[in-house]
Design a protein that fits this description.
The protein has helices at residues 17-32, 35-57, 64-88, 91-96, 99-102, 108-137, 148-175, 179-197, 199-203, 206-215, 219-233, 247-273. The protein has 282 residues and is mainly α.
Length: 282
């Protein structure tokens, strides 16, 4: 009888962290990209594009009007897509008690949240870019058509928004049981109202930094630019603001990247110390 040894048996290699993240992202994408899941976001996309078409029909003579519309409506529409996708990425399974099964996989405490965030970010980016393209397409050949540099800033803002908002809403979904309501409350109060009244709140507001990315101006100049836009729409003549170059845009982009990193770090800490579950907090 031939000698037999365990050494002749090949064991499956443990997945790398990057491979595990990609696997979780692929599995989550397969569940998200379905008509039953995406139809509310498709309606939101149609509403944003219809609004830009309505703005063109107003026959405004100020080319900054479409940029203001993009900052206040298209980017917020993208944030609402991230709200739905981000908060539901783990909360539904946590409430059903099924998340514990996924956490048994190798490297899951790190790979699962990052993979779910990556999947939500990809879908959010797709809708954000479609909203951007629809907004820009409605202005082609009109006085509202923005210059190429502004178009590049708008695309950059849409991509950055697709990174930061899913990360924040994923953390909210992993931390709070009523994640959708909590995420909507933060979106209205923390990302919209608070930055209007507090300089400190602006530092933690993705919407504020994304507005700076689109505007291409420094923080102190943004208020003056908004006031000048209102005067132009009222038919008053105001001097043009000087171009600040890409310096302020890159600074705002770095601020968005920092917010994304902080939100993801909080998610990883949550999954390492106290994974989301259906049990109420003590």
């Amino acid at each position: 009888m031939a000698d037999w040894s365990w050494r002749g048996i090949e064991r499956p290699a443990a997945p790398t962290t990057v491979g595990a993240i990609a696997l979780h992202a692929q599995l989550h994408l397969g569940r998200v990209i379905k008509p039953a899941t995406l139809w509310p976001y498709a309606l939101l996309l149609a509403a944003v594009v219809a609004g830009s078409l309505g703005l063109v029909r107003l026959a405004l003579s100020d080319a900054t009007a479409i940029v203001e519309y993009f900052r206040h409506f298209a980017l917020r529409g993208e944030a609402l897509v991230a709200l739905g996708l981000g908060t539901a990425a783990v909360r539904g399974e946590a409430d059903a008690g099924a998340l514990a099964y996924w956490l048994l996989r190798p490297r899951a405490p790190i790979a699962l949240p990052l993979g779910r965030w990556l999947a939500a970010a990809l879908v959010t980016a797709a809708f954000g870019l479609l909203m951007t393209a629809g907004t820009l397409a409605s202005t082609w050949g009109t006085v509202l058509e923005p210059p190429p540099e502004t178009v590049r800033r708008m695309v950059l803002a849409a991509l950055l928004g697709a990174l930061v908002y899913p990360a924040i809403f994923l953390w909210i979904g992993a931390t709070l049981r009523h994640a959708a309501a909590a995420g909507l409350a933060w979106f209205i109060l923390g990302d919209f109202v608070a930055p209007l009244v507090s300089d400190t709140a602006r530092l933690a507001s993705p919407a504020h930094h994304l507005s700076l990315v689109v505007a291409g101006v420094a923080d102190a100049t943004l208020t003056d630019q908004l006031a000048d836009s209102v005067r132009r729409m009222a038919g008053k003549s105001v001097p043009a603001l000087p171009e600040a170059g890409w310096g302020p845009t890159l600074e705002a982009a770095l601020a968005v990247a920092l917010l994304t990193a902080v939100a993801l770090a909080l998610c990883l800490v949550k999954f390492q110390r106290d994974p989301p579950s259906s049990a109420p907090a003590p």
